[in-house]
From TrEMBL:
InterPro entries registered for this protein in UniProt: Cof, HAD-like_sf, HAD-SF_hydro_IIB, HAD_sf
Organism: Streptococcus downii
Protein name: Cof-type HAD-IIB family hydrolase
Entry keywords, A to Z: Hydrolase
Enzyme type, top EC level: hydrolase
SUPFAM superfamilies: HAD-like
Organism placement in taxonomy: Bacteria, Bacillati, Bacillota, Bacilli, Lactobacillales
Length: 269
């Protein structure tokens, strides 16, 4: 019996227009009415989730969201932090040094800010900030490492070619110290070592006394892989890569074809 639905957002809950189809909203409400707990699990920061959560029209009392690829978990009753992992000042200095050696730009996130280091934001950073409903805050390395902010994760953004080059040159080295993932063609992400959506989901499930076998997880991208494998039932979206699909228990329709609603209907309703 499924007790918890762990749901990725971009490429899963959201269609290509970055909207939640009404079919998904209806199915989620029906699942919750059956007693299933919804946990959005996304690489987005909290401020990139709130407008969508409002559109879902859910009771805010006792649900959770896992954001920043597992770096922070919030309870929806007051959006307060219940669990988190953060970058140290030394971590930030290390990431900054890698960005300085490449053509990608380093960004950092706390609960309220989308920070950009190393000068004016490039076009890809600007576009990404719009997708998460955020203004950009330019910050110096000195201020970023001052301890004034709780920095959850870093992202390197550039063109696909620039990000390819960054990943080829630095990913192996970076992953000795961080959890690194190429989440999108133009984004490489770095979280505190050992931090993934799955680790955050595991800790939350323990608090809620829910077993992995009672969890259904859905996703489409590389940063969903650990979560799909952790859950008793991992469902890949039809728009996922063949590699992600090969690691899932089942494949549903794409995010343009009501894939989330179809999987909820099949396995929960």
């Amino acid at each position: 019996m499924i007790k918890l639905l762990a749901l990725d957002m971009d490429g899963t809950l959201l269609n290509e227009a970055k909207e939640i189809p009404q079919t998904h909203i209806t199915a989620i409400h029906q699942a919750i009415e059956k007693g299933v707990k919804l946990v959005l699990c996304t690489g987005r920061p909290l401020f990139g989730v709130l407008p969508y959560y409002k559109k879902l029209g859910l009771d805010l009392q006792n649900e959770y969201v896992i954001v920043n690829n597992g770096c922070s978990t919030h309870q929806t009753s007051d959006w307060g932090l219940v669990d988190w992992q953060e970058l140290s000042p030394a971590d930030i200095e290390y990431l900054y040094d890698l960005a300085e050696k490449s053509d990608v730009q380093l960004t950092l996130f706390d609960e309220k800010h989308y920070f950009v280091l190393g000068g004016k934001p490039n076009e890809i950073v600007q576009n990404d900030a719009k997708l998460v409903f955020s203004d950009l805050t330019e910050i110096s390395l000195e201020e970023a490492t001052s301890g004034k902010y709780r920095m959850f994760q870093g992202m390197f953004l550039g063109t696909k070619e620039q990000t390819d080059d960054f990943e080829q040159r630095f990913a192996e080295e970076l992953c000795k110290r961080f959890s690194g993932v190429r989440s999108q063609p133009v984004i490489y992400e770095a979280m505190p070592l050992g931090t993934t959506k799955a680790t955050a989901l595991s800790r939350l499930a323990a608090i809620l006394k829910i077993e992995p076998s009672e969890i259904m997880a859905m996703g489409d991208a590389n940063n969903d892989i650990e979560m799909l494998q952790f859950a008793g039932l991992g469902i890949a979206m039809g728009n996922a890569s063949d590699y992600v699909k090969s690691l899932a228990n089942d494949v549903t329709a794409s995010n343009e074809e009501d894939g989330v609603a179809r999987a909820i209907e099949k396995y929960i309703l």
